Structure formats: C-alpha cells, structure tokens
Amino acid sequence: MTSPTQKPAASEAANGPDIVLARLLPLMPAMGITRLANLTGLDILGIPVAAAVRPNSRSLAVHQGKGLTLAAAKVSAVMEAAEAHHAEFIDAPLRWGRRRDLPVPTVDPARLPRMPGDGDPEEDRCLWIEGRDLMTDAPCWVPHELVHADYTAPQPAGSGLFQATTNGLAAGATPQAAMAHGLCEAIERDAMALWYDAGAALGAAARALDLASVRDRICAELLRRIEATGAAIAAWDVTSDIGLPTFVCIIVAPDDDPHGVETELGAACHADPATALLKALLEAAQTRITRISGARDDFGTESYDRPARERWMSEGQAWLAAARGPRRTAMPAAAPAPASASHALDAILDRLRRSGFEQAIWVDLTKPGIGIPVGRAIVPGLEGPWTTDGDYAPGDRAHQGAEP
Fold first, then answer.
1. Which of 87, 123, 296, 319 has a CB 3.0–4.6 Å from the CB of 201, allowing a cystine?
2. 113 DSSP 8-state letter
3. Angle at 147 between CA 36 and CA 131, to 5 degrees
C-alpha cells in the first residue's frame, strides 16, 4: 500500500489510493472500525482529512488521516486505526521479570524513553516482548510497555517505568515499508525533543525555513493554497545529527478571524526533504481539524477553555514572528528516490549506525487474518516524544544537546 502522503513512483501508479482503499474497506470490521468520515469541510484550508472511528478501542477511539486526495486521507485514517488495533491486541508470548532474569538478549533499559520517578529499570520487574534487531537480525527482548497500546485500567504490574506512547508504531504496504515508517517516526520525535530542549522556535530561530526557497511543485502549491485562505505558515528544519530530513510546521489562523483555530503543529521525517515537508504540512492541517472536530479522546476539555486557547495563540504568533526573522535556512536539495522500500530501510539504518546507534528493534505485530504489516520500532538512545506536563524524563541526548 502506498503511503498516503508520499509521492508514488511510476511503478506504483497502478496501486493508487483508490485501489488501496478498496482493499482496506473489507478489513475494517475485523479492526473494529465502524465509520470512515470525511472531515475536510470543517476547516477553511480544504486539505483532505478523514477519521476512522473504533468505538471499542483500548486507546483512542477516533483516528485521523490526511492526504492530497480524499481517498488518500481515508487510507491514512484506516492505517492509523490499524496500527492501534494491532498494538491493543497483542498475541505474542510475554516474559515477566528483571532484565537479568531473562535468558535471552535484552535491550538496555537505561537507553529507553523513561517516565520520571524513582523506578529502577534494572531492578524492577516488568513484562518483556520479543523483537528483532534490524542491525544484526538477532532476537532482542524489549519492555512490553513500550510496545502495546492497551491503555485500559488497570495496567499490568510493572507499568510506569517507560513512556507509554504510540511512538514508532507503524503500518505499511510491506514489512520493510512499515519498518522504515516506524524508524522515521522515532527519529522525528527525537529531533523534536532536541528542538524543544533547545528552546523550540524562539531558541533556534536560525533553523526557520525560508518558504520562498521551496521549489518542489506539490509543496509549493500546498503552501499557496493555505496562504490563499488568509492563514499564515511557518516551518523549521529540525533535522538532528542523524541527518534524516525533519521539519516542523505551524499554521496560524487569520488575524481577522474571531473564531480562528489556535496554532497547530505538524512534524515529519523522511529521506526526501520535500516529502518530509509535505507530510509536516499535511500533519498540521490534520491537527487543526482534529481540534475543530472535538473528537480526539486525548484532548482535555481544559485545552478548549479561553485561557488555554489565548496562551497557545499568543505563542503561535511569537513563533511566527521568530520564523520571519533575517536568519533563515534554505530548503535542502532533493534526495534521489530509493529503488525500493528495502533500500529505503537500509539507508535509514545506515544513518543510525553512522550516528553511533547500535540497535534498531522491530517488534512485529502483524496479524495473519488481516494481512497489513504492522509493528513497533524502538531505537535505544533516541529521545521519546517531548511533553511539558512532567510525563517524560529527558535522556542523555537532550542533556548533551545533540545537534546536526
């Protein structure tokens, strides 16, 4: 299945979003999807956004998707829902114990995204699940808490040591495509954490992207479409020392819109800079509609209160002003398209190796009865998703200030 935001190669033209969607629709009941909705008209941007609804979910019940066409957005939404379903219902064997109790290779828990607190990942018992190290093709066990997405209460004993998110959870047309997607997401979240730790838009103004330097036809057209609505856009090149292009985008509501949606962020990582920027722009548009629709389970009601909205809108204006300063970076040159998903995966692994990372674990969650390749990518040493609510303990890279 072609990624809904990736520009397909000529050889993939016969496997477009409409054909992929037709293949996915019969699989929806098996994954608990009861509705596939078009949300595009809720926003002034006109960028296709869809939602897949899973009422009996064990995590989020509404999953958004985006794309350049409505069919692509629907494919994206179904694939997001598929990822969650597979991570909520894991059938693989688990082991219980301390790291030293497992008679198999295990990941070093000190190099994994941690929750704050007094827990000791070496001494505390927890559940473990088997993965495979993509660097060596050897088995390696990782904490189950970093893999599953069953957030129903009560959580298994030993939970609370590691950051329980969907970071690195990915689906794809092939196992290699899913692996590449999951690794890119993990690298993106790490780059975002480093950017936030450095002060984000206000602390790294020189990393603001000069949008006039964007030459990719699809990206440039999307920027024009958004600006034609009166909304303002800013973007930052937050690529880390790993060197895989990563961008953050914000879309700010028009100044004359009294009911404007507050600033929303989008971020993405991809080997091709133009594709990374495109995905980040689409992500920002999706997040706007997610906010407008009010259907996202993890958006607290307090985030819709006036003080929270005004604070975020004020911060968005400050970020926008910083991005328009005199020091801006040009859009990186286009990268050659990989010959296949396997080549793309090898290139990502090579970048990680050259940056000093020794492992990249993939936990296969694919269900034979559904047939969509799904799994979780975990790269020991990368930072986890950055939060400001005290639910994350920054790791060594954030403390050391890793930069490109």
1. 319
2. -
3. 120
With the CA atoms of 253, 298, 40 and 30 taken in that order, what torsion angle do they form, in degrees rounded to the nearest 10? 170
Mean pLDDT over the full length of the chain:
90
CB 2 within 8 A of CB 20: yes
Q: What is the pLDDT of residues 361-382, one digit of tens each?
A: 999 999 999 999 999 999 999 9
Is 128 exposed, middle or buried, given 0-12, 13-18 or 19+ CB atoms closer than 10 A? buried
Per the structure block, which two tokens stand in for 105?
A: 């290779």
CA–chain centroid gap for 126, Å, is 26
The 3-class secondary structure across 295-328, one letter per residue, is: CCCCCCHHHHCHHHHHHHHHHHHHHHHHHCCCCC
Q: Which of 33, 13, 37 is nearest to 24 (CA)?
A: 33
Interatomic CA distance for residues 231 and 44, integer angstroms: 9
**Residue 294 DSSP code:** T
- DSSP codes joined into one string, 247-279: EEEEEE--TT-TTPPPPEEEEEE-SSHHHHHHH
Residue whose token pair is 């307090």: 302
* Tokens representing residue 343 in the block: 């080549």
3-class state of residue 333 by DSSP: coil
The per-residue pLDDT for 129 is 97
pLDDT tens, residue by residue, 394-403: 888 987 766 6
Which residues does residue 246 pair with via DSSP β-bridges, in sequence order?
269
Averaged pLDDT, groups of 10, the chain, 404 residues long: 39 71 97 98 95 96 97 98 98 94 90 89 93 97 97 89 95 97 98 91 86 96 94 95 97 70 90 97 95 86 85 87 87 91 96 97 97 98 85 84 63
Contact 248, 287 (CB under 8 A): no
| 99 φ/ψ angles, rounded to the nearest 5 degrees | -60, -45
Residue 302 tokens read as 């307090």
Tokens at residue 334, please? Answer: 């286009």
Sheet with 62-66, edge to edge strand ranges: 35-38, 49-53, 62-66
Strand partners, 9: none
Give the pTM: 0.93
Question: How many angstroms separate the CA atoms of 145 and 48, rounded?
Answer: 34
Q: Extract the tokens encoding 259.
A: 């009911």
Decide if 78 contacts 33 (C-beta within 8 A).
Answer: yes
